[in-house]
Write a structure and sequence with these properties.
Strand content: 5-15%
Helix content: 40-55%
CATH class of the largest domain: Alpha Beta
Oligomer: single chain
Number of strands: 7
Structural class: alpha/beta
Low-confidence stretches: none
Strand order of the largest sheet: 2-3-4-5-6
Radius of gyration: 19 Å
CATH superfamily of the largest domain: CRAL-TRIO lipid binding domain
Shape: globular
Number of helices: 15
Largest sheet: 5 strands, mixed
Order of helices and strands: HHEHHHHEEHHEHHEHHEHHHE
Mean pLDDT: 96
Length: 285
């Protein structure tokens, strides 16, 4: 498990083949879709988005290169950013630096899984001190990470897997979550993120997790519901989805135990400030 780095290189031939099979991506389809989306954006006078090809691909890949669907996604994102302006306006990595560095709540594996997907681990139990880090802080970190993930062609194509670890969760954690926070997170995942979420896995849930689930369940749509899995402490069930050869020993995997966190890879965020500023400028005019 080497140093964490963003993989911004163009996709390999193998990845392009996956993109062809799963996303309809060919040079011809790509060129036509970019051109069509540019025209649609030009006509959408209330939206402000850059129209360079590399940027537009971020929205075309998750919508399988249907330009109208890509524009709808862009509009959803603009609406989401407007509705949560107080939380997200001009959000820079430095605004959440302390959460990355001082708290081990969110981690990204340096390696991908057997399907080339990025794996994110969110610790919603013992490592989370709700007095120091609010539900909103956690969302701001997640939103910052998603900006970085969008820069990776391999992630655009293969998608992401999220593991929510509830080990050590207590009432103080449950009381720190709200229906509003649940709605914000699920609206983001389902409607306002260009990332392909391929699976959400819940592990080490205690009995009181049922209280948390009642907050989230009303906002889960059928498509995402099919990609949610509840494993408890049975890591073998998790390994059916994310093979143990690609997981650290903390999760029953064969890789070394996690020995790094946000402190080690936060500097990666600081290397891509220009893109983050570019993203922050998007939305309604």
């Amino acid at each position: 498990m080497g140093k964490f780095e963003l993989e911004t290189a163009p996709p390999s031939a193998e990845l392009l083949e996956i993109a062809k099979q799963e996303l309809r991506e060919t040079p011809e389809v790509r060129t036509a879709a970019v051109e069509e989306l540019r025209k649609l954006l030009e006509a959408a006078t209330d939206l402000n988005y850059p129209n360079d090809e590399e940027f537009l691909i971020i929205f075309l890949r998750p919508t399988k290169f249907y330009a109208e669907s890509a524009l709808k996604l862009m509009r959803n994102i603009a609406e989401f950013n407007k509705n949560y302006k107080e939380t997200l306006y001009n959000l820079m990595p430095s605004d959440v630096q302390n959460v990355f560095i001082e708290h081990n709540i969110i981690n990204i594996l340096t390696n991908r899984d057997q399907s080339g997907r990025r794996v994110m681990i969110v610790n919603m139990g013992e490592p989370w001190d709700p007095k120091a880090v609010s539900e909103e802080h956690i969302f701001r970190v997640l939103y910052t990470i998603h900006k970085l993930a969008m820069l990776e062609p391999a992630t655009q194509i293969s998608g992401v897997v999220v593991i929510y670890d509830f080990k050590g969760m207590g009432m103080k954690h449950v009381k720190s979550m709200s229906p509003g926070g649940a709605k914000r997170l699920l609206t983001f995942i389902q409607e306002a993120s260009p990332l392909r979420v391929k699976g959400i896995h819940f592990i080490n849930q205690p009995m009181i997790f049922s209280m948390v689930w009642t907050l989230f369940k009303p906002f889960v749509k059928e498509k995402l519901n099919k990609r949610m899995f509840f494993h408890g402490d049975k890591m073998a069930k998790l390994h059916e989805h994310v093979h143990k050869e690609f997981l650290p020993s903390n999760y029953g995997g064969t890789l070394p135990a996690l020995d790094y966190g946000g402190k080690e890879w936060y500097p990666v965020a600081e290397q891509h400030l220009e893109f983050i500023k570019k993203w922050n400028s998007c939305g309604f005019k």
